[in-house]
Amino acid sequence: MSSVLLGDAHGISVVDFKPFLDGSAKQDVAKAILDSFKRIGFVYLVNHGIPPEKSKAMFEWSKRFFALPEEKKLLAPHPPSGTHHRGYSAPGVEKVTQVYDNKELIANARAKAPDVKESFECGWAENVGMPNIWLPEDVLPGFREACMDFYWTCHETELQILRAVTVALGISEDYLVKYHHAHDNQLRLLHYPSVPAKDLEEEKITRIDAHSDFASITLLLQDHVGGLEVEIPGKPGEFMSAPPIDGALIVNAGDFMMRWSNDVIKSTMHRVRAPPNAKVVDGMIPPRYSIPYFCCPEFSEVVKCLPGTFSDENPAKYEPISVQQYILQRLAATY
């Protein structure tokens, strides 16, 4: 195990994924990932299979997109509906919240401390129910192709991580893979503009409030600035930094995966705040860029608790559920 477990960052395991990919230590890698998921719901992966040059290029595309004038970005507007996560959202429009069924509370939270971030989202090109919304090609030539190439690159790594989870659970390696064809995944480019440090500290504004993700797993690439925080296990409301690690992919489990695993895997609250020891210039926190890739089972599937997560002594806690019913309910609550 020591050869694949490279250490930890504030309690989150740092795992070398290469021995899983090349088959030299699949069980050890799988166990290390599942152990971290069980304990805190997050894991860092190095040698994860996403080529560094592709990650670098996608961050460059992201910066070029967000550097466009506002009126240009709004040529690909995110629809007002929270169930259609595609296109561009301007700063302060979206409010991530853990309240799902009270529109008044959500509106009040947005007014009190808006999320000062902007985003662009895309998904499967042939998704009729949630079509992509692109800029006109002449506004940023090549952007669409770059996004979709990166979308499918991330999907390949997603499948390998799902295989590792099932190997660790002792079930068929392709058990989760058969539910994940990337038809309902989402690639998001995020930009957190430079903001006054005092306003962040006094919570007059937020970057992203505490929340959990809601699908299977999330792959996160982030720049060197930092600011991601994860709730400390057993200490609700207390958070610790999840700092950037050069070349590492952060992977976390979502609420659907926790339910699917009969609560064996944890879905943990996390947020984005002012980065620790940030270089503040003229009272301003530096901008931050990140790229999350949200992985979701096929909407058409109905799933029940995974084999290997329940027994006569520990029965399944959850009835079978439609993926579409579960996910759309959560999507609608983020706007």
Topology:
Layout: E1 5-9, E2 12-16, H1 18-21, H2 26-39, E3 42-46, H3 52-66, H4 70-73, E4 87-89, H5 103-112, E5 118-122, H6 143-169, E6 186-192, E7 195-196, H7 197-201, E8 208-211, E9 217-222, E10 228-231, E11 239-241, E12 249-253, H8 255-260, E13 270-272, E14 284-285, E15 288-295, E16 302-303, E17 321-322, H9 323-331
Parallel strand pairs: 2-3
Antiparallel strand pairs: 1-2, 3-12, 4-5, 5-6, 6-15, 7-14, 8-13, 9-12, 9-15, 10-11, 10-13, 16-17
Q: Write out the CATH superfamily name.
A: B-lactam Antibiotic, Isopenicillin N Synthase, Chain
**What series of H and E elements makes up the topology?**
EEHHEHHEHEHEEHEEEEEHEEEEEH
Number of domains: 1
Can you give the mean pLDDT?
A: 90
Could you tell me the radius of gyration in angstroms? 19 Å
Shape: globular
Strand residues, percent: 15-25%
> What's the arrangement of strands in the largest beta sheet?
1-2-3-12-9-15-6-5-4
- List segments where confidence is low: pLDDT < 50 over at least 5 consecutive residues: 97-111
Q: In CATH terms, what is the fold-level topology? A: Jelly Rolls
CATH class descriptor: Mainly Beta
